[in-house]
Amino acid sequence: MNRFLLTSAFLFATASVVVAAQPTQPPAGWPELPPKAPASNVKLVEPHLHVNRAGKGAPRIALTFDACMGKTDPRILSTLVDQRIPATIFVTARWLRTNPDSLAVFLAHPDLFELENHGQNHIPAVDVPTKVYGIPAAGSPQAVAQEVKGGSDAMIAAGIPQPRWFRGATAKYTPAAIMQIRGMGYRIAGYSVNGDSGSLLPARMVEKQYASAKDGDVIISHINQPTHAAGEGVAASILALKAKGVQFVRLQDIPEKGDDGTTN
Ligand SMILES: [Zn+2]
Prior knowledge:
Elements: H1 3-19, E1 49-51, E2 60-67, H2 74-82, E3 87-91, H3 93-98, H4 100-108, E4 113-117, E5 131-132, E6 135-136, H5 141-157, E7 165-166, H6 175-183, E8 187-188, E9 193-194, H7 203-211, E10 218-222, H8 229-243, E11 247-249, E12 256-258
Parallel strand pairs: 2-3, 2-10, 2-11, 3-4, 7-8, 9-10
Antiparallel strand pairs: 1-12, 5-6
Bound molecules: zinc ion.
């Protein structure tokens, strides 16, 4: 094969990948194209959620925390308890297994903590095969149902009241999965302010995110990464919001509005 042909083959391969959604393999002996990514055209939604605004007076904000797996961040937990800040905590069955002491703290303060369902194994509640942030999704309606039910079964076995809210790992869904989970009796918890970007932000950036929250916002952060700098920013931010006179609410306490059909 001469140089011109080789270049043409390369261009053909590149153009096919870029232009065609489903590239066909070139003739035998030509450079192979990368395999088609599974379900690369899956359209996922990441719903927003707000609580009803207070209107006049102190702004109303809902703090929500995901306990995905791993441990508990004592900087955040002790701030919530010591300052008597109400919050909604989304727990997985996986996290419950390894954090009985933290669960006991949550359960000892039912006036502060609402516990809701973050799934069984922290698998994205997406009903078609794909990956979200590199995490393989549940991949079928059956697997979505198992992720949701496995989460609530573990919660009830641990002495937690029946959850009414679900937030899947990565907080992304297909519209069909949203309908399915709604059909299982849940509202789905989006958010409106991303407090810590998966616990990956530096503390100062977390503080900026929290400081941007307004009346009616729902903030998402993580309470399961005690070694990350983000947690320090979360703890400081909670104190800063309290100093501003914010009225903290849980999802069960206040009417809310979510998009993509996630609430009523
Ligand atoms: Zn999570």
